Amino acid sequence: MSTTVKGVIARTKGAEVELTDIVIPDPGANDVVVKIQSTGVCHTDLSYRDGDINDEYPFLLGHESAGVVEQIGEDVTHVEVGDFVVLNWRAVCGECRACRKGDTKNCFDTHNASKPMTLADGTELTAALGIGSFAEKTLVHEGQCTKVNPEADPAAVGLLGCGIMAGLGAAVNTGDIQIGESVAVFGLGGVGMSAISGAKLAGAAKIIAVDLDERKTEHAKEFGATHTITSKGMDEQQVIDKVRELTDGFGPDVTIDAVGIMPTWRQAFYSRDHAGRMVMVGVPNQTDQIEIPTIDFYSRGGSLKPAWYGDCLPERDFPAYTQLFENGQFPLDKFVSERIGLEDVEEAFETMKRGDVLRSVVIFDE
Known about the structure:
MycoS_dep_FDH; single chain; Quinone Oxidoreductase, Chain A, domain 1; 11 helices; NAD; metal-binding; S-(hydroxymethyl)glutathione dehydrogenase [NAD(P)+] activity; zinc ion binding
């Protein structure tokens, strides 16, 4: 029997979000209904609202979530009713070419729920990243549920579901930072700060945090930055020169673009060591082009890597980083800037755009 709950939708491009009734169908054979406890307000949700992802409106927004499994389909074996889970949008298929090679982090045929959630009038909703968790409950595939320590704070560990894992994974997995290496992170939102934390966790000796906003560069010290550059008023070459100066003229071993715009991309590309690794984890818009002289690409060694979801494997990484958080070794709770209600999502987007928070997190009543 279907269930009606409250949820936040984006009905049309650029319009303010709406809090309305959402119909959750009974789960299919491998589907799961999850009662949501927390959902982070991620920039990807704003991108869905503004039409920067696709135009499959209306969207049921929200995807950075933790909650409790409430109902399962007849063939579900991965979780049980009552399990505390973090939702993920990489439920690997196990059958595609990448999966069969054992390269599951590059699976692009991930599972989603077999049925759509709808508005009360039957209009089908497109769930953001296949999750749609700005709602009291949501319907997902069982593989989108990752069990973690049920004693952990949902507001904190739910952030592993997207942005924090993206930045953390960009440092630890994609960048493969080694003990004693130098790192520069460009852009200090939630993704950038988590890349700083990941670099510290990986044992980087020098971690340079770069941002236009002095508030953010100061804040980065709390997450592990050893050096900071407030780049407001500097041109790109001045930023590049300063980063290289801080690394004895060589440039960092690893640079991370956590914004996804061409100024930060170029700063990350040109400031790295001659054989350094550059990681792009910030999500670009659909019209940006990478334009550099071909000889500049050819004449540098190292590697250029995109970090899609921080190259994470949720079943491996979410429980591990939850445990590190519980041990006091990784500061997930520091990313929770404010706890808000479901009705406050539109205001949280404005707060995000002003750069006043790392994450606003929607908390649902028990």
